[in-house]
Amino acid sequence: MNIQEISQGKKVDAQLMIEFYDQLEEIDCAFMYGRWKGYEVITGHPMNGLLVQSNWYGKLLIDQETVYPLVLLNTKKTALFFIDPKWLPLNLDFKFLKKNAKSLAGGLKLLKTKDSKARLRMTEFRGKISATMIYDEKPIHDVFRKIDENTVLGWMDLKQQPQPYFFILQRDDNSSLGFE
Fold this sequence. Notes:
This protein is an alpha+beta fold. The protein has helices spanning about 5, 15-25, 50-55, 95-100, 100-105, and strands at about 25, 35-40, 55-60, 65-75, 80-85, 110-115, 120-125, 130-135, 140-150, 150-160, 165-170, 180. Strand 7 (about 120-125) and strand 8 form a beta hairpin. The longest helix is centred in the first third of the chain and has 10 residues, at about 15-25. The radius of gyration is 15 Å and the shape is globular.
């Protein structure tokens, strides 16, 4: 399996993704500093499609204490903004959220924040110690592994969700998009 196969938007077997993830190299926190463009990995996870429908752009990591876990594109796709994940109803049925994602996406502006909503730490996960984004007010850890110098694979470890949710981040420090 390679990055091209994963990023084509086609469904990938979840077990193959787990095996691929386990083979990847761990990374330190400093490697993650910067702006990252995100892409979902379609595995059949109940959350697949939610981030795309919400105009998810990616993540911004300034340092270990200044981390923006959810960066979205505005509706005109001309600027970026941060949202506070605290208010996202992840305890609801994902099918309901997907069915209503388009109408809910407009309301995401109400969750806008300027404050950092996560931090970055080294944690052990699946036998390796690697950079992990720990959300401030949600039981979520995004654990990163290196694909190459500009690409990482993230495993969103969400409490009470046994299935892993995978995403790809590509370094995007030279983007011309500004922040609202």
